[in-house]
Amino acid sequence: MRFDDAWALLSEALQQIYERDASNLSFEELYRTAYKMVLKKHGDPLYNSVNDLVKTRLQRVTTTQLKPARPNFAPTSSALERRESGNRFLAAVKQSWEDHQLCLGMITDILMYLDRVFCNDNKKPSIQVTGMALFRDNVLRNRDYDIGADLNRVILEQIRMERDGDVIDRARIRSCVYMLEGLYETLDEREDQKLYLTKFEAEFLTASNEFYTEEARKLLEVCDAATYIERTNDRLNEEWERTQSTISTLTEPKIRAIVEKHLITDNIREVMQLEASGLNFMVDNDRYEQLKVLYNLVWRVDNNVMEIRRMLKERVVYLGREINKGVYGFRKPAAPGEGPNGEAEDKSVNAETAMALRWVEDVLALKDKVDKIWEYSFSSDQGIQQTVSKSFAEFINENKRSPEYISLFVDENIKKGLKGKTEAEVDMVLDKAIVLFRYIQDKDIFERYYKKHLSKRLILGRSISNDVERAMIGKFKVEVGFSFTSKMEGMFKDMNVSQDLTTEYKKHLANLHLDNDPTIDLDIKVLTSTFWPWSSMSGETTHTCIYPPELEKIRSSFQQFYLRRHNGRQLTWQPQMGTADIRATFKSRKYEINVATYAMVVLLQFNDPKVESLSYDEIKTLTSIPESELVRHLQSLAVAPRSRVLVKTPMSRDVKPTDKFSFNAGFQSKQLKFKIGTVKGAGNKVETDKERKETEEKVDESRAHLIEAAVVRTMKARKSLKHADLMLQITEQLSKRFMPDPSMIKKRIESLIEREYLERETADPNTYVYLA
Amino acid sequence: MGSERLGAAAMHSQGIDVLMNAIRLGEINAVREHLIASKHHLNAVDKFDYSPIGLVAILFRQASVATMISSSSFYHWELGATEAPSKVKDNKQPYATLLSSLLSKEVGCASLTGIYRPRPDGDTFLHPHNSGDGIVAHAFVLIARSKYFRDIMESSESLQVDRLPIPTDGNSTLAVLRCMYLIDSDDNTETGDTPDSIKLSVYFGLPSLSKSTNTEPRDGTNRHTSLIEAAQDDFLRLWDECLSVPLCLPRGEPFSVSKLAPRVQVLRPDVVLEVGSQFDDEVFFYAVHKAMIQSDFICTAVRFKQAFQSSQIGGPTIVSIDVSPQIMEAILKWFYTDMVDIPVEAALDLLQAADMLLIERLKSRACLLLTTQDSDDLLTGERGYSIFDVARAGWMTGTFLKLDPFCARFLANRLEKCLEEGTIRFQFEELIRESASRIQKREETDTIELIDDLRYYLSERFRMRFEALPAHMFSDESQNHVDNMEAQTEHTTEVLKTDNHEYERLTGALDELLVKLGFDV
After folding, report:
1. Mutate to test the interface with A, among B278, B283, B297 (most CBs of A within 10 A)
2. Which end of chain B is more exposed for a tag (fewer CB within 10 A), N or C?
3. Using a CB-CB distance cutoff of 8 angstroms, which residues of chain A are in contact with residue B300?
4. Complex ipTM
């Protein structure tokens, strides 16, 4: 077998393949020919001859098919002309590539044995790989015509046209891109050496960079925020689609980074700050969709969306301060305070209570609004949630009365007999209250108010239900732990124990068979003094009272009964807190009247028919009720028009020590049962300035205790500690309940040193040492 | 126990103990002879519960391991065709995968080269009552594997096989098909969603499925192997009865499907292989299936031709193959049954044909067949080919890694004859020259590969005998040993001396030869 003969046969066949006239070729014969050539050690010349043939062929294709189709880049040509000529060129490149692939495939099939055996044994690149490299060098990098550069330019021009809104033939570009992806710089065909990456992509990215720098400038100039983010979103989608349909998906992350940089990173801050349409506008006007798009855009470049968080915080705090302003605005005229002047102060307290409730409702409304945006537009982003919490905490704590207000709000919603609210609705409102509670820094102040309000509800039986109250306390417990709620739970326990106690006492009385005694139903509440907010319940005065004999008898009977059961305890009676149902006979008819215990004691002084009238001083002596209380009760019994069961002479609004009081036998009322309240309302209201001052003092006092306790606890454990470390530890320990004031901590430390719990280390006065 | 006694005993005894002793003493020739004489012992165990292969592994007798592994695979593959299930694990999996990949796209067939891709779709639709489109299968597989379909084919003139024996659901039908196609269906044998599969398999006359659900499922490997063997049997019958008989036409007469025997037509062949050189008067046409072809050449030829054929009416694609009918039949039988069935004389032709047709897996099988030969007539070429032909074929077909060691060992064991003046010596010298000429291509070494191998096996040949001698013979204290050892020691020392002398003589002669041929020693 001569090489020349065999090659003549094969080369003839390969030419036929290129001429698309291969249907009559005998595959078996051609394969066998190549097989035998390899066996006869003609592999090398065969391999070279085939490559030469392919090379010649490709050079001819370039000259005859591609050169005439080269595009027209003349600046004078119209866009349409340029597009048409570009299209023709792309079509020609595509055609030559497809022809090459098809023919090379057939050649590879015929020369399979050469590939498998000769190329493999001699470590030569396969016919396929060499064929691809030949296409690269003889077509795209043809010495005479730079087809590759033309191709890049045409593709970029067409993409630019599409970016400007024209329609282009994507599929045609894509097939050329596929070609660039199928060709490599070297014969080992490394993935990062695709011509697409080495020759095309960089040019594309440069062009894109220029385009989007300009695009960003234009958009910012003409668009409002909503349009800007919409356009940006469209551009991002467009570029993504381009990587899927026109160029290679390999470019996707790179082009995305370019668009994101120019349209988002560089400008989004400015866009968000646009006054009439930026983030503030969107938040104020609940533009959920726009905010959502905005969020998604910012999220692309910053997963923490810091820019949004910063601006959102500013806005929320601003809106919160607007709500706070209502409170300050209200307080101002009342601030000079003309002293505890009855009605005027009452009125202002009522109004402020209403305002306090409105404050809470406004804050909750803001929270609802922000939550909706957070959930819908911000994909419930955890970081934004933190920001929202911080913002709310910031302005809520700026309002020093927020703990009181929030507790009042709970009181208002938990009170019995609220119209039109189901228990479930109440529960929902209370959940919201808990959210606000979370934001409060001075939890100890809240606790103080809450206990005060709670005690009133419990003693006056005003709660909607015990379950709701307990549920609420359960929620506090979850939030801040057992120590916060233990006293409140104690209050509940007292209430339960008292109920049992009352029942048992009744049974005890029944056993004694004291039939001749006047029956008095005693409903007693024994309160453990440490659980209850004593001072706020009783005021500063010590409550004394001389009970009329019929009452004194039952009081001492119960006292005996109780102390027998609980040896060693001390019972202190709190007449200022009780009420009594009394039956009173007037000229016209009998009435059942609900009065305060003190009022009952006063009225009983008139029970003796011999008593005509009593002066203020006489009543005071007889009952020894504290003066302030006595005045108030006499006011409600003798001054208030609808419940004037006593007659005061001379008739005036004030009660003076010289006034005389007598039984008003001619009293009439429309209702058979009614209630005589004390002058001060029974409901929970905001504190007056005076009360608040007291509360503040109490808070400081208890904080002082807590700080001392914490200092001693810490020092006992650590024995010796630097000042700064101790401060840090104390602040950390207490911050759950309140933010301790450093000067206060210092004072407490000084005080502890004085009392010789601690001392300063002699060598280093900045270090404290615990003294056992 | 002396080596002489052992060697003699090995020739006569059939017992496993003999084999084990030969292994312990490293008598590699005895081991080989024993294995060739009676292969049954390969999987047996002795009274210490050692298997021969286990023992060689422990003793680390390299040559013995090689011998045993090659003969064990050979042994097993040959037996697989007939009966006697062997416990030696061999690789039937490529064959099963070939079949499975026809039905299930999930079966990967990346490991198989030379198969037609994409895998050919089925040509026959089965219609279970709840499966609208029907389930597609391959007629030749159905006929091979099921008596039910075979009967239908034989009786039916319309070639319709889409009737099912009982009305049934798609899942059951598919389960039975999976079994036919050897898709391992261990997980699917729960009858929950394939209620009729067992019944159906009985109708189809598929013993394997019904049996498999009854026998203990523990021995999964064994079960799988026996399922594959059953399939091999089925395809062997199909081969013997239908496919092995080619259509024979006088040269020049065009082929047409209608000229095929009806029982072949019914199998719907899609490829026809034309065999017959231009000097023959007759041409043979083998009707086959793309589905079973494992030759890159045939697959590519079919694809190439079909690119120009697509406009015409389907019909099988004809590919002419330049081999003898005997080789063609051996190759096709292997395609269908995974069995190599050819006289040893044709083994070399088979290797060359497999190389030309690009059938890698068959090349290894042919090499195995070649390397089991160990008779002196290989030297003279009385069998149709000589050991020198084998070596050259190894170089030519890229199988030298398998064949070179065999040839070198064969020649080392008969070096005396190679060095005698005559035609054998002439051929031997030619081979050394050719091996030397291969150095140019392999840069990493500058020695003649064949000579390296020869020296290695030569030293192996003699070293084995030294090691078989009792250890004390090499120590100084040997003189102080008990008397009854003395006679024996004397005898073995004698043998040792002779052997040593012989070894030196042979290496010397080899060196001389090399010098004469003009190579550095």
Report:
1. B297
2. C
3. 27, 109, 112
4. 0.79
